[in-house]
Request: fold
Amino acid sequence: MASSINPVGPDDPPPDERPLQIADPRWLPSITHRDYFRTHAENPHVPVGSLGASLTRIVRIHRDYVYPRESNTPAFTPQFPGYPLSVFMTEMEFLDLVHEVNDQLDQAFYPLSLGNVLDSCIGFLTCWLCEIVHTSYHKRKSLELERFIEKLNEEVYKARGIKVISPRRTAYLSLDIQVPYPFIRPE
Amino acid sequence: MPGSTEERGSGPPGPVQNPEIESSRHHLRNYQMFPGHATFYLKGHFQSAGKPFSVLVVFAAIAVPAGLFFGFTAPWIWNNISPSLPIVFSYILLLCVMSLVRSAGSDPGILPRNIHIETSDTEKREAGPLNIAPLSVTVNCRQYDEDRPLYLPINYCTVCRIWRPARAIHCRDCDSCIDFMDHHCAWLNNCIGARNYRYFFCFILSLSLLEYFMAALCFLHVFAWRHRKSSTTSAAVRCAPVSFALAIYGVLGSIYPTALALYHIFLMSRGENTREFLRSRRVNKLERRRPYDTRNIRRNVLYVVCAPRRISYIRPWAIAEEGDRRLEKPSSQ
Reply:
């Protein structure tokens, strides 16, 4: 998986608009997961009282407000939450996952990208009629992210017993990783 | 489990014999299970917070003068001055009506419930001072001014049971947390939020433009008639009374939308919401902060205007999933 730890190039946006990197002095650690107190929580994505509710827990990766270049873009904090996720994933794999998700979200949500600007202009000029028939750039990119997560779940995470819940389901409020309870890797 | 079960017979639904016939009858849609105060129309594609009386009043205030315009002024202008002017008017009218429909009928960015369950009954039995999850967390946000550090409070909404993102607010009229909520518009009877805002802005802009254009064309009708027949103003008014009335209506009716449009342009250039602006009025002037202002007016405005229309989080028209806790009513806990 390609992850953009150092995205600087000739065509890149000005420093103010780039996502901040960990080595950047302006990047203050946005939150610690300890501030939200719980390292793992009840799984709300399964029906109450079902088998899944007692056998799984959710590790939540909360939203970060420093990382994205535009303040309304959802981005998840690349801080590794430690146990219990460390049983199932190394820190490098976690960072790759989070950076890739953040990159795709940035592509979908950034207002000044070409697809979004064109959608807005053409929508405005056609009195919003074109949106009835045309799938917007933003929606296409969001669905691409969904497919990416599904593919990742199928190929890599199913064997370890964990599952990344689709971000659309959680409305981009947090990146939920469903881990089996008790925290033992099925191997 | 929320939702009516009499259609499903006994027990959980098993494999369906004739999916084409039975799926449409048996499956509930998300809007039928929606826990907030909203009424849905056309199978969940349009919504309104309560009775849509004021939207119809607004629509009538636009459509009736436009109808009168097309009946009385437009033919004269088409024949005597230019056919392009009524065409431009109809284009602006279409833009205005479509923006009205989209901003008043669309889901403003309602956040689903029960995503972040903090205290559940099984955990409450061990509740002590350390086991109660905090209801507010302070996070850092991107610093544009190096000298004044800014922090954002992230609050937990106990009604919706989620950690609310930075610019989301729980609206009491809609009884839901709305992402990037601007304000609850009483005229349109809907919240203006992330998905709605550009339609709302387009609506007030096109409405003021429509009123100006209508006033201009009606005055043009009256004074051009006076010029061509070389007669007096009062004779012209007596000959085309509807046009003159429409012109006065246009002038008066453009005041409120223009004021709103200018106010929103002012807010957009500062990177603020209506709610954030009104809240900051209560704070001491030296302590007011604008954490989302990128210190560049053009960038601020473009960020809002070109922001994409997000996909709906709750999807009222979609078929409801079994045991979907995102739409649970709080009383069923």
